[in-house]
Amino acid sequence: MTDESVYTIFKANVPEGAVEQLMEVAAAMSELTSSEPGAIAYEWSLSEDQRRLHVYERFVDSEAGMAHLENAGPELSKLLEIVTLEEIECYGPASDELREAVSGFPVKFLRRFEGFHR
């Protein structure tokens, strides 16, 4: 069986004084995402100085990734009003539909070629 899962790492800079607002959006987005059956992992991390944000998202496949974009889209807009997006790295077999849906963002697609996960 092949692994169709797709995951992304969203990387952004957080302006000084915006952490409280960021925490509110993160909580809302996490709650929305927790109800998505195709969401495998969803983790928010801040650097020690609270100026660098990484969000790790893993979905069973591209279709689940698309469902997430539709579900969390309004909150994503709020997030992008707070942080400065640097890049999104996308790993796995992203479908053409998913690639098109994120084409307006600074996304780098990477193809897995070796390894495993449990």
Word description of this protein:
The chain is α+β, with helices and mostly antiparallel strands and 118 residues long. The chain is 36% helix and 31% strand. Helix 1 (19-34) packs antiparallel against helix 2. The two termini are 14 Å apart. The model has no long low-confidence stretch (mean pLDDT 95).
Shape: globular
- The secondary-structure class comes to alpha+beta
Residue runs with pLDDT of under 50 for 5 or more positions: none
Please report the distance between the alpha carbons of the first and last residues.
Answer: 14 Å
The tally of helices reads 3
Brief characterization of the structure:
It is built from 3 helices and 5 strands. The protein is of the alpha+beta class and 118 residues long.
